[in-house]
Specification:
Layout (H helix, E strand, L loop, with lengths): L1 H17 L13 H27 L5 H28 L3 H41 L6 H100 L5 H24 L2 H5 L2 H7 L1 H8 L3 E7 L10 H22 L3 E8 L3 E8 L13 H12 L3 E7 L2 E9 L8
Parallel strand pairs: 1-2
Antiparallel strand pairs: 2-3, 3-5, 4-5
Helix pairs in contact: 1-2, 2-4, 2-5, 3-4, 4-5, 5-6, 5-11, 8-9, 10-11
């Protein structure tokens, strides 16, 4: 719109150059300067009234919504205001009243510029210009006519620029709304994918625990019982042959004992007995994790804050995953941290829990790409529970915290 107004100004100046030989002095009481200004402003106002309408009709046609709005605004705002203007302009000749009526003629132009952009302003300006031309210059004073043309030029240009600004703001608002809709859709899609990822991770971990339970049962029922049967038969054979002092029987007994210990350790690592039989609290305080850590010469301390007694009301998957998180952290501490103490704190609120595991070891570089399988498994477990994992590590040691929302298991399982 700025470029259009500049072009109109240049065109008006060009029209003046074409009228250089116009007999300005024909009017006896009109100076040459005033006549030049009248010609320039007259050409500019004429183009200001026609060119935007031509542009709108030929290239930038108004939308259907804008046309529907004009059906209400033209008879409701434009027509009554211009009728008042014509009444004042044809019945009063005082200069102040004339300019008051001229300003009144551009009230609908401002209204249309705000409501309908530059297209509405173009319609209102053209109508106001024709109304002023029809009413004529009532005073007959060339100075008044020149000021009226200046008013038309300034007010029309301002209304067109204001309307163009309104259109730009409206287009920006529409683009922003479309962008917000895209972002909302992307967030919704991201949430759906996140939920699907959590469900997939939980299914994988559930399958892993089911496999662990199956292997545990098989080891206990098959290999454990067979080892017990072999030891029993070996003792009977030893008594029958009265060869208790024979070294061969002693070596066989030692081998069977080591096999039983290996199977017991494997059973404990696959599925800790205390977790199912005595609960998560006992398994964390006095179970296999404590024995494993203290056997490595590292102090072990556990704090469980459960004022509502909801720890054992958690579903089996949540209890198992919490135990595995602590178990993996303890394994990493024993193998890599060179720590002297490992502290575990579990705080349970009404709808979430906070698990914090801290050691005073040498730490490591907690870069996700360099994380080991165990740490990745811990992240998968927290993700499967819909929680958030935070890890800090350095010269002060390592601090792992997991905040997890939960729903207590009220089914009795």
């Amino acid at each position: 719109m700025v470029r259009l107004l500049c072009a109109l100004t240049l065109a008006a100046m060009g029209g003046l150059l074409g009228n250089l030989f116009y007999p300005f002095a024909e009017a006896e009481h009109t100076s040459t300067t005033l006549m030049v200004l009248q010609i320039v402003l007259g050409d500019y106002i004429g183009m200001l009234s026609l060119v935007p309408l031509i542009v709108m009709a030929a290239w930038l046609r108004p939308a259907a919504e804008l046309r529907r709005r004009w059906r209400v605004d033209v008879p409701g705002a434009l027509a009554p205001t211009l009728a008042v203007y014509l009444l004042l302009a044809t019945h009063f000749t005082d200069v102040q009243t004339f300019f008051l009526s001229s300003i009144l003629a551009f009230v609908p132009s401002l209204y249309f510029a705000v409501r309908s952009g530059w297209r509405g302003a173009a319609i209102a300006i053209s109508t106001a210009t024709m109304a002023m031309a029809w009413s004529g210059v009532m005073t007959g004073d060339p100075t008044v006519a020149l000021e009226a043309q200046g008013l038309l030029a300034v007010a029309g240009s301002v209304c067109l620029l204001l309307g163009a600004s309104q259109d730009a703001l409206h287009a920006s608002a529409l683009a922003l709304s479309a962008r917000n809709a895209q972002l909302a859709h992307a967030r919704s899609r991201q949430t759906q994918l996140g939920e699907a990822l959590r469900h997939a991770a939980r299914r994988n971990l559930d399958l892993s625990e089911q496999v662990r339970r199956w292997i545990t049962a098989e080891l206990h029922d098959e290999i454990g019982q067979n080892l017990t049967a072999m030891q029993t038969r070996l003792r009977l054979l030893e008594r029958k042959a009265k060869l208790q002092g024979d070294e061969l029987f002693g070596e066989i007994n030692a081998i069977l004992l080591r096999m039983r210990q290996s199977v017991s350790g494997l059973l404990s690592s696959l599925r800790p007995v205390g977790l199912d039989e005595l609960g998560l609290g006992f398994a964390l305080r006095d179970g296999a994790i404590r024995r494993f850590v203290e056997a490595a010469g590292i102090g072990y301390a556990t704090v469980i804050e459960d004022p509502r007694g909801t720890l054992e009301a958690l579903d089996d998957d949540t209890r198992t995953m919490l135990y595995r998180i602590v178990q993996e952290a303890a394994t990493n501490t024993v193998r890599h941290a060179h720590a002297t103490c490992l502290r575990v704190r579990l705080r349970i609120a009404s709808d979430h829990l906070l698990l914090v595991i801290v050691d005073d070891g040498r730490g490591f570089d907690p870069v996700p790409d360099k994380a080991g399988i165990g740490l990745q498994g811990t992240g998968d477990r927290v993700l499967a529970l819909g929680g958030r994992l935070r890890l800090r590590s350095g010269g002060f040691g390592t601090r792992l915290s997991a905040r997890i929302r939960f729903a207590p298991d009220t089914s009795g399982n």
